[in-house]
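G., the chain you wanted modeled:
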Amino acid sequence: MRLNIPNSLTVFRILLIPVFVGVFYLPFAWANAVSAAIFALAAITDWLDGFLARRLNQTSRFGAFLDPVADKLMVAAVLVLIVQADPRAVVAVPAIVIIGREIAVSALREFMALIGERTRVKVAMVGKVKTTAQMLALLLLLYRDDFRGVPIYEIGFWLLYLAAALTLWSMFVYMRAAWPIMRPNATRESPSASLDSPKPDNTIRGSVARE
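Predicted structure as tokens:
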């Protein structure tokens, strides 16, 4: 399969993950700064692939699938390494909340897509704010060192809790939107009927990832 530019950037972001992990464990003083820079590069490509997909009219179902997968893989890898480097409960708890929410919302979206109701859980503004706080928190936690007296790690620590709170709130927003379909006495069309009805291939990349 020939990859277009947006999909190539998404694949590049996935390939950055083992590079990031390798740099993170290097026993050099500059390892923190370089691992933070790699994560920042991944975040930039996350925005850029969605922008180019829309600008160049190169949206695709493959891209809509792969883009959120790449984002979640990178975020999960960063959170695991941060907790490994600072194995305190106060760091592990928000990490667990964020990873658990990603699993729950992904399952919810898959279920809603299966019954043809995916638009009920479309991306909300709180999800975009959550993503911004989360990316900034992880970037600062990876950098770790103070910068001209500014406590970078402490700022990242509190931003991680802000991201975790927004994570729970955004999950509540999506669950509330889906509840009319999910409640026990709700009627819904059969999954097979939804799957037999093809959907137009006009998914906008990037919006799914910022859930």
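Confidence is low (pLDDT under 50) at residues 189-210.

Shout if anything looks off.
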